[in-house]
Amino acid sequence: MTTYGGDEISAIVIDIGSSLSKAGWSGEDSPKVIVPSYVGSIIEDEGNKNSTTINADTTLINDVNNNNSINTSSKKNNKKYIGDGQISCWRENMELKNPLKNGLIEDWDTLEDLWDYIFNEGLMIDPSEHPLFVSECSWNTRNIREKLTELAFEKYQVQAFYVAKDAVLSAFSSGRSTGLILDSGGGTTSAVPVSDGYVLKKGIIKQNFGGDFLSEQAAALIESLYNITIIPRYKIKSKEAVDAGIPAKFVEYPRPNTTPSFHQYAMNQVMHEFKETICQVSENPYRESILKGRPLKCYEFPNGYNNSFGIERFKIPEIMIQPREFIIQKPNTEPIDTTNLLGIHELIYRSINLCDVDIRPNLYSNIVLTGGNTLFNGLMDRLNNELSMLAPGTKVRIHASGNSAERKFGVWNGGSILSSLGTFHQLWISKKEYEEIGKSIVEKRCN
What is a biological process (GO) this protein takes part in (predicted)? Predict the structure, then answer.
């Protein structure tokens, strides 16, 4: 029997997240390929196919277009751009697409573009020579799993295939087969109970907001409090140094035909950096009178505006704990319905209570935090305090890697570990089994 993922044949492990896509080799400590889960696309009209975009980055952009564009579409004038350096570079009429919506694969063409990039540009391998291990969200559907299986065997001709639930992989990454996995990434936040390596589906609770939503909220709060407009980097031609709190002095590039998808991505990148630099969660229940006494932190935005920020450092991540009270309703936009939104401690509490009584203590003592949106300082202490109040007398233990990379790549790391185990080779779906049984085998084999 061929040992996939062992010394004979290396398996490919792929985790497509809502913000980042990770790929690499089974058994390795970290992914080799890390790229944003977005594909830039420019579809030019026949009449404009010879037009030239003129801007201050013309040389850079021409280099990018000539050397690094990935032409994966059958349309002659459709260019694709993948990778942080590609999609962060402004281009006229460039749309950014993400394959996922609420954790589920919705745009299959974009998924294929990402896989093509991973195989051809990232790992530089022929996928038909390797088995493929991919992650899926814990609430994935049968139709999507079967389509993934079909894609792997029919288009990429992989030798073997397996799909595993992200919560199980996060548990394995932390050295556990049982636990409550709190995963907060760019697009979703979920609480998923895992017992002996299996997801307890009745306990899954998720909300369709994560780090991207928090970044949008951060921008709205800062703009309203300080009466400023946050300008993303692609618009800044030059700037002057100004004192703290003084309006920025800068010159903007004319950026005609910028798509809303590119602008929102660029805005989120600015606010992601803002959050990661100065925001933190209040370790104890939010009390503004106390938090106002905490030290200020300075931050400068791309256009040169800078200030010392205080209470807003805590207000932004507090949305994760008290969304109904702290979500900002932006003017001239559709109101956000906060009625049924839960704090992340409430997600954990409700998820565990949906499970059998005898397993609850084990889940409470094995709460695992994963995903980039769980990296705020103070979050672990706050969750401990909140859960101790929700479930008095219960032993609560929260586990999270102190290494930010491990927290962001927990799902991929779990896949690397699981697929390299000596006992795992019998779980692979082989090409022969796929040809004999068909795509329905994935539902029986990959639980």
Answer: kinetochore assembly
